[in-house]
Amino acid sequence: MSIRGNGSASVPGSQRESSEKSRPKDPRKVAVNNNYKGFVAGVFSGIAKLSVGHPFDTIKVRLQTTQKAQFRGPLDCLLQTVRKEGIGGLYKGATPPLSEPVLIRRMSNSMLGSLTFYRRILNESVFNPTSEPISGLGANGSLPAVGEIPHKLPSLGHGLAGIMAGCTVSFIAAPVEHIKARLQIQYASSKAQRLYQGPIDCGRKIDAQYTKHGLRGIYQGLYATLLFRSCFFFWWGSYDIFSSAFASHTSLSTPAINFWAGGLSAQVFWMTSYPSDVVKQRIMTDFMGADRKFPRWRDAAKAIWRENRWRGYWRGFVPCFLRAFPANAMALVAFEGVMRALP
To answer: What gap in Å lies between CA 105 and CA 277, rounded to an integer?
Structure first.
């Protein structure tokens, strides 16, 4: 042991570092770090989901908003789109959702970020109250693996957190999806022939029709979006069930569990929410102002029923179902991977 000039003993560097590592972390700093990681992971998750899933989404929206006379089915819609508009036609409206994660994060983190926030609140305040805050996240800030937190949040808690996250992000997602849908149903291959030249131009023209009513125009379809996104209950409740089952009964790695649980839970979500999505798309692509055909949610729902009975609520489901697994699985893999990789 070395002695300094003032007579006090100095602590060796290695001993000091080990004592600092063993010191318990401040829960508040852990929460702030998790929020930062959730922001970055959400951006990468959105990019991964967009790259894989947007062409399927374009086909889905076009089928949802047209009659059988225009497209006989998903394949016919795909072939007509590529033949008349090129591959770029499948990515119409891609700019708004690409920016969506950043916009949502600035309000309350994005869907995945707000999900972890509400899950932590429910775990600490409702299902497993404790005097010490629990991060609600895994060892590296990712969605928790089985047994990683002192008292595991039940699947019901994950489902309720999904509803809360869905309602939170709806106030940003509604105008983004509104603009995206209007861009996706423009069939002209030349920009000069299109009503909207891009997302900014679309937003301006929508706002111009509602100058007397503020943000009412851009939020056309908000209530339908809230109803649609409340089905996140089934997505995140089933995600926890699948994750727990894979962790308990298989030897899959964590990324593999994220992939399969994410893909399967996305299928559950779309099977429970798809009819409400069809109604939402009809409302968002409806005329605006006094010319609206569907001023209320039930008006759009009745119109779909009159056109094709129950089958109308499932028009476009095939490309949606095909998109759901790879797009959402890759999004969750990206989210989890970034959360684990960040310091």
So the answer is: 23
- pLDDT at residue 131 is higher than 60: no
Give the CA-trace dihedral at 18, 20, 22, 27, to 10 degrees. Answer: -160
Handedness of CA 288, 278, 167, 184 (dihedral sign): negative
Task: Retrieve residue 158's tokens.
Answer: 């994950």
What Cα–Cα distance (Å) separates residue 297 from each residue in 40, 206, 225, 228, 278?
A: 35, 20, 10, 12, 11
Query: Region 177-203: what's the mean pLDDT?
Result: 85
92, burial (CB in 10 Å: exposed 0-12, middle 13-18, buried 19+): buried
In which band, very low, low, confident or very high, does the pLDDT at 210 lie, cut at 50, 70 and 90?
low
What is the C-alpha separation between 127 and 136, in angstroms, rounded? 12
pLDDT surpassing 60 at residue 213: no
Which residue, chain included where needed, has tokens 């399927």? 56
Q: Alpha-carbon torsion 145, 149, 155, 158, what sign?
A: negative
Pairwise CA distance, residues 186 & 299, whole Å: 24
